[in-house]
Amino acid sequence: MSKHYYVYILASKRNGTLYIGVTNDLCQRIYEHKNNIIEGFTKKYLVHSLVYFEETGDVNIALQREKQLKKWNREWKLNLIEKENPTWRDLYPDIC
Fold first, then answer.
1. pTM
2. Is the pLDDT of residue 38 over 90?
3. What whole-number distance in Å separates Cα of residue 93 and Cα of residue 69?
4. Which residue ranges form the domains of the chain, and what is each CATH number?
């Protein structure tokens, strides 16, 4: 059985506060963010909308990509989201 790893971006609203994370269970992790189960940044700033994600079968690639995205400037992150999700729709209902 192959594993799946996800790098994801949450947003508080369009062009709002962004959060980048990595997980091996995207639906469970976003559910935890949306319901403020996880203490920290997303709970404090109400960053609950899944606006972007990537999937890989290699945990090291996922962690490397997360670090890379976190280093990007804001404009690059916004362009990445807008390229795949121009309306900033919450993708969670579609995938979970």
1. 0.94
2. no
3. 24
4. 5-95 (3.40.1440)
